[in-house]
Design brief:
single chain; mainly alpha; 0% strand
Length: 53
């Protein structure tokens, strides 16, 4: 059980690229979407304004 609980040390051994792949996989599982076809961001919900006066 202790071995199964120690994920951090295993992830620290991976490159940042591999950790990013793991994160993408976990997001696809959590939000139930195909890893090879993720949903597109709805850009109509966000806006940006300039701070210049």
């Amino acid at each position: 059980m202790k071995e199964a609980d120690d994920h951090a040390s295993e992830y620290k051994k991976l490159s940042w690229q591999d950790r990013l792949k793991v994160a993408a996989y976990l997001n696809s599982v959590a939000f139930d979407f195909d890893l090879n076809n993720p949903p597109r961001m709805d850009k109509t919900k966000f806006s940006a304004k300039s701070n210049q006066v």
